[in-house]
Amino acid sequence: MSDAALIDGLSAGFEEPVHQAQAGFRAVLSVLSRPGRVERLARPARAPAGLSPAAATVLAVLADLDTPVHLAGAGRAAEAFVAGSCGAPLAATTGDAAFAVVPAAGLLPLSRFAAGTADFPDRAATVIVEVSSLETGEVLTLSGPGIAGETVLRVAGLPAGFKHAWADQRPDFPLGVDLLLCCGDRVAGLPRTVAIR
């Protein structure tokens, strides 16, 4: 894809495509490299109905022609955003998706998302989860790479059984899914390397 085509595609979601896309990409990298950190996007993408501004920004900066996106009930406006702003194909099932957007209540089971293969663990899905809050709610105590000792993340809306489901995928590392938790203009990352208690 040419730079001009990329900028034209991104302009559907951003008023200033280059600067906003760069800032959004840096925020995503920050939350994945520092699990438990919550980033507020100063100028997120214009979100269509069915997507939070944070989820729209994540898709706008990460999804492209080679990354099928599954949208769980997000609606036609969100589908048009993915096709128009991202140029990404829509995946019919979660197992075919490089990126999947799901409401928190519909996150489980994690096993329905692509976990990668022994030869290609990088082919695992990144699941964008629309949660109720990244300020209040259940306390997740995180440890692992990118965390000095332990850190705490508060999340509202995750389904019952989430901690057990997360623990169940850990023995298969480096296979497993990565999560980007989105709420309004905020985003936090839970890479598969993280342990939760």
First-last Cα distance: 42 Å
CATH topology, which one? Rossmann fold
Uncertain runs with pLDDT below 50, 5 residues or more?
1-12
Total domain modules: 1
- Helical segment tally? 5
CATH class: Alpha Beta
What percentage of residues falls in helices of 4 or more residues?
25-40%
Largest sheet features: 6 strands, mixed
Query: Roughly how many Å is the radius of gyration?
Result: 16 Å
Looking at this protein, list some descriptive labels.
3-stranded antiparallel sheet; single chain; disordered N terminus; alpha/beta; Rossmann fold; 23% strand; 6-stranded mixed sheet; 5 helices; 197 residues; 9 strands
Please describe the topology of this protein.
Layout (H helix, E strand, L loop, with lengths): L2 H9 L5 H17 L4 E3 L12 H10 L6 E3 L4 H11 L12 E5 L22 E5 L2 E11 L7 E6 L5 H8 L8 E6 L2 E5 L4 E2 L1
Parallel strand pairs: 2-3, 3-4, 4-7
Antiparallel strand pairs: 1-8, 5-6, 5-9, 7-8
What does this structure look like?
The chain has a single domain, classed as Bacterial phosphonate metabolism protein PhnH (Rossmann fold, 3-Layer(aba) Sandwich), CATH 3.40.50. The strands form 2 sheets. A 6-stranded mixed sheet has the order 1-8-7-4-3-2. The protein has a 3-stranded antiparallel sheet with strand order 6-5-9, with helices on one face. The N terminus is likely disordered. The protein is α/β, with parallel strands linked by helices. The chain is globular and about 40 Å long.
